[in-house]
Amino acid sequence: MFSTRTFIAAGAFAVALTASPVGADSLESAANDLCEKVKSCSLAELNQQDLTPEMKAMLEPMLQNMCAAMREGIREVPVEHDLYDPAVACMRSMAGLSCSEFNNGSTVETPECVKYRDMAEKAYGGS
Q: Strand runs (DSSP E) across the chain, as ranges?
């Protein structure tokens, strides 16, 4: 069954990645690809759900606008930043997942994203 939380979490993950201090250009492209994938899967699932028209009317605009909102959050930092390539690889790996893989929360964290998370935590003293 569809988990709205899975798609919201994936969208939030994309925003969190772009809010980290890494570059734009390829990063922006990768983030946009991921966001469009999450949006597409979310809209497809939303249309298959037995939701009230009011609930659909509330969720659809949010999904339609999430990529534009995400793009506004990308900060430009030099491409030479140590986290630039791992962040791009993480988002590209997630964009390559199928919608069914997004529905299975255990596969949303790709090896590329684990590497990025570990590097970011080490670089910024995260938990």
A: none
Q: Is the distance from CB of 35 to CB of 67 less than 8 angstroms?
A: yes
Residue with tokens 């492209």: 29
Q: How many domains does the chain have?
A: 1
Q: Coil, strand, or helix at residue 31? A: helix
Q: Are 63 and 39 in contact (CB under 8 A)?
A: yes
pTM for the full predicted model: 0.69
Least Cα distance to 23 among 91, 92, 74 occurs for 74
- Which residues are within 8 A (CB) of 37 and not within 5 positions of it... i.e. 6 or more apart? 94, 95, 97, 102
Condensed to tens digits (0 to 9), the pLDDT of residues 8-61 reads 444 444 444 444 444 455 888 888 898 889 888 888 888 888 888 888 888 888
| 65-100 confidence digits (pLDDT tens) | 888 777 776 655 567 888 889 989 998 999 999 998
**Which tokens belong to 87?**
């962040």
Cβ contact 102:1 at 8 Å: no
**Separation of alpha carbons 21 and 35, rounded Å:** 19
What residue numbers bound the domain in which 26 lies?
4-124
